[in-house]
């Protein structure tokens, strides 16, 4: 796996067009923009619309309009995941040919029953840990409902795999991928590409050196690092920013009633997002002036590649 250490900084914001930006997504967008600017780098926008069934018509254009109103303008034209399917297909085929991906015909019900037989329960807000039912079945491609990646250290599927990495805000991280996640899906039974594969392929194709995103995605990192290893792709640096939480204490999201940003006062929205990121009160009567001060504040505490410790 190649390193991004010497590459010019390239960051990105990757919203899903399932609705408009809200306070939580603005925090992620602002953190990624500030980090890119503080490092003298480029900032890109990628529309993650691989799951078309969840996308709201016109939301992609509306999100780009919201970013424009906030003076968060990408340095290159945005890209859409829905237009990049050949890249994902090539990556999956490479994993299949290498013996790391296999076909699976399990249903959610059969997985749940297999776990129940082992007296294993799904954690609250967690995922079903795939029990490896199809790992050694060698199903023909025509019988595969989905495709999964071996979460083990060996292609035989017996040795647990533990991954560790350094998060620029959260510090040292590790996960036993085999036990915590299991063999995860690369292409779903309905034919849709899984987020994990898409994001890894796209980050590499766009030359992303630094991934700055919300803390709720931190546990995705080991899956993505494993794919980077197996596909011989660069591993970006990671920074997971604080979350905006709703009245119930859980992450603010479209699923729990987050309202679209009120951009009647873009400066107020930026100030609020900056406060979540720990920025002090900053001068500026216009968004551009405030952003310039915010970049300076972000850079002052970054000390280079280590930030928000």
UniProtKB/TrEMBL annotation:
<feature type="binding site">
    <location>
        <position position="130"/>
    </location>
    <ligand>
        <name>Zn(2+)</name>
    </ligand>
</feature>
<dbReference type="InterPro" id="IPR022380">
    <property type="entry name" value="Glu-Q_tRNA(Asp)_Synthase"/>
</dbReference>
<feature type="binding site">
    <location>
        <position position="48"/>
    </location>
    <ligand>
        <name>L-glutamate</name>
    </ligand>
</feature>
<keyword id="KW-0479">Metal-binding</keyword>
<dbReference type="InterPro" id="IPR000924">
    <property type="entry name" value="Glu/Gln-tRNA-synth"/>
</dbReference>
<keyword id="KW-0862">Zinc</keyword>
<feature type="short sequence motif" description="'KMSKS' region">
    <location>
        <begin position="251"/>
        <end position="255"/>
    </location>
</feature>
<feature type="binding site">
    <location>
        <position position="213"/>
    </location>
    <ligand>
        <name>L-glutamate</name>
    </ligand>
</feature>
<keyword id="KW-0067">ATP-binding</keyword>
<feature type="binding site">
    <location>
        <position position="106"/>
    </location>
    <ligand>
        <name>Zn(2+)</name>
    </ligand>
</feature>
<keyword id="KW-0547">Nucleotide-binding</keyword>
<comment type="function">
    <text>Catalyzes the tRNA-independent activation of glutamate in presence of ATP and the subsequent transfer of glutamate onto a tRNA(Asp). Glutamate is transferred on the 2-amino-5-(4,5-dihydroxy-2-cyclopenten-1-yl) moiety of the queuosine in the wobble position of the QUC anticodon.</text>
</comment>
<keyword id="KW-0030">Aminoacyl-tRNA synthetase</keyword>
<comment type="similarity">
    <text>Belongs to the class-I aminoacyl-tRNA synthetase family. GluQ subfamily.</text>
</comment>
<feature type="binding site">
    <location>
        <position position="254"/>
    </location>
    <ligand>
        <name>ATP</name>
    </ligand>
</feature>
<feature type="short sequence motif" description="'HIGH' region">
    <location>
        <begin position="15"/>
        <end position="25"/>
    </location>
</feature>
<feature type="binding site">
    <location>
        <position position="134"/>
    </location>
    <ligand>
        <name>Zn(2+)</name>
    </ligand>
</feature>
<dbReference type="GO" id="GO:0016874">
    <property type="term" value="F:ligase activity"/>
</dbReference>
<feature type="binding site">
    <location>
        <position position="104"/>
    </location>
    <ligand>
        <name>Zn(2+)</name>
    </ligand>
</feature>
<keyword id="KW-0648">Protein biosynthesis</keyword>
<dbReference type="InterPro" id="IPR049940">
    <property type="entry name" value="GluQ/Sye"/>
</dbReference>
<keyword id="KW-0436">Ligase</keyword>
<dbReference type="InterPro" id="IPR014729">
    <property type="entry name" value="Rossmann-like_a/b/a_fold"/>
</dbReference>
<dbReference type="InterPro" id="IPR020058">
    <property type="entry name" value="Glu/Gln-tRNA-synth_Ib_cat-dom"/>
</dbReference>
<feature type="domain" description="Glutamyl/glutaminyl-tRNA synthetase class Ib catalytic">
    <location>
        <begin position="10"/>
        <end position="260"/>
    </location>
</feature>
<feature type="binding site">
    <location>
        <position position="195"/>
    </location>
    <ligand>
        <name>L-glutamate</name>
    </ligand>
</feature>
<protein>
    <recommendedName>
        <fullName>Glutamyl-Q tRNA(Asp) synthetase</fullName>
        <ecNumber>6.1.1.-</ecNumber>
    </recommendedName>
</protein>
<feature type="binding site">
    <location>
        <begin position="12"/>
        <end position="16"/>
    </location>
    <ligand>
        <name>L-glutamate</name>
    </ligand>
</feature>
<dbReference type="Pfam" id="PF00749">
    <property type="entry name" value="tRNA-synt_1c"/>
</dbReference>
């Amino acid at each position: 796996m190649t390193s991004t250490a010497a590459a010019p900084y390239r960051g990105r914001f990757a919203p899903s067009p399932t609705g408009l930006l809200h306070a939580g997504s603005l925090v992620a967008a602002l953190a990624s923009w500030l980090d890119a600017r503080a490092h003298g780098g480029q900032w890109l926008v990628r529309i993650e619309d691989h799951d078309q069934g969840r996308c709201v018509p016109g939301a992609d254009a509306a999100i780009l309009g919201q970013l424009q109103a906030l003076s968060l303008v990408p340095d290159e034209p945005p890209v859409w995941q829905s237009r990049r399917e050949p890249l994902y297909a090539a990556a999956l085929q490479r994993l299949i040919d290498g013996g790391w991906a296999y076909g699976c015909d399990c249903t959610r019900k059969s997985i749940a029953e297999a776990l129940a037989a082992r007296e294993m329960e799904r954690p609250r807000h967690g995922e079903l840990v795939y029990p490896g039912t199809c790992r050694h079945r060698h199903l023909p491609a025509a019988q595969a409902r989905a495709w999964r990646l071996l979460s083990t250290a060996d292609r035989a599927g017996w040795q647990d795999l533990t991954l560790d990495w350094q998060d620029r805000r959260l510090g040292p991280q590790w996960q036993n991928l085999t036990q915590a996640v299991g063999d995860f899906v690369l292409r779903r039974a309905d034919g849709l590409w899984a987020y994990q594969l898409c994001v890894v392929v796209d980050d590499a194709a766009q030359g992303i050196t630094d991934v700055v995103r919300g803390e709720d995605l931190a546990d995705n990192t080991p899956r993505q690092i494993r794919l980077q290893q197996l596909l011989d792709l660069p591993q970006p640096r990671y920074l997971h920013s604080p979350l905006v939480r709703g009245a119930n204490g859980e992450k603010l999201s479209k699923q729990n009633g987050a309202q679209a940003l009120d951009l009647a006062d873009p400066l107020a929205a930026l100030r609020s997002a900056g406060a979540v990121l720990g920025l002090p009160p900053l001068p500026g009567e216009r968004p551009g002036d405030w952003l310039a001060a915010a970049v300076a504040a972000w850079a002052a505490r970054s000390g280079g590649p280590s930030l928000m410790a």
